[in-house]
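Issue 218. Parser rejects a valid record. Input:
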Amino acid sequence: MDESREAPTETKPVACPAAAAMVERMNAHAGSETTETPRHLHRRFDRMARLVGDDAMARLHRARVMVVGLGGVGSFVAESLARSGVGNLALVDFDKVCATNTNRQLQAMKGEIGKPKADVLADRLARVNPQANITTQRTFYDEETAESLFAWAPDFVVDAIDNVTAKCHLLAESRRRDLPVVCSTGAAGRIDPTCIRIADLAETSVDPLASAVRKVMRKRFGFPAEGSFGIPAVFSVEPAAQPLALAYDGGEGFRCVCPGSKDSPHSCEQRSVIYGTASFVTGVFGLYCASIVVRQLSNK
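Output the parser choked on:
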């Protein structure tokens, strides 16, 4: 995710209007076959149901999953959860779609640049499952916003944040509330998806982001120096490649074009390094995270 802190923007802790509008449009057509019904919901997820069974699908339809961070990892998490039949999703990200997101984020398409990532993704997922309840929160997760975000009462939390401070607080707060949470570690700078692994956050290797998170979790939040954290983490054993210099923008080098970047302390210009990314790596990170959520919720 490409998060940055701006002045708090409007949050929308209600079911996504796009989903309701989609149902209305379908119901407006003649004939019962275009009306959203339990039968249509069943058909939509027939192949998933044949994999996990009716009881598991019922649990997935009732489940409430909060995805924090909707970038190259988080957008794939949210889409996979929607396509797996999770019936209630909270999408948290206050950033806007940028042209530089195109290579890895599902929201980044022509006509969507400059729009809130959460809203664009919610509209997309409403077309996947018009019967889903999709909540968007256009806000930055941190200690100040945590209480209002957790008030949505999730059954599962997905951490797809790349800000260490926010990431650690989200993980610790989820564990404090006895909520299952999955952590995505560093996906940038990698090009080999076969190097991606799943392990407890206390047991990952190679990735420097996971190492930094462990230090903070132990020092600030009292996580054990030895033994597991009880937090599954998706990570890569491939060392991150340093970014290559590119000659473009009239030979002047990289210039940030992100919407609102001038007012953001997390803009491209404020970063010490901007790693390269590949959708077939960040996307697999997201799919791994989604698999952990779905398997646990469905008892598989």
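Fixed in the parser; the record now loads. The domain at 12-297 is CATH 3.40.50.720 (Rossmann fold).
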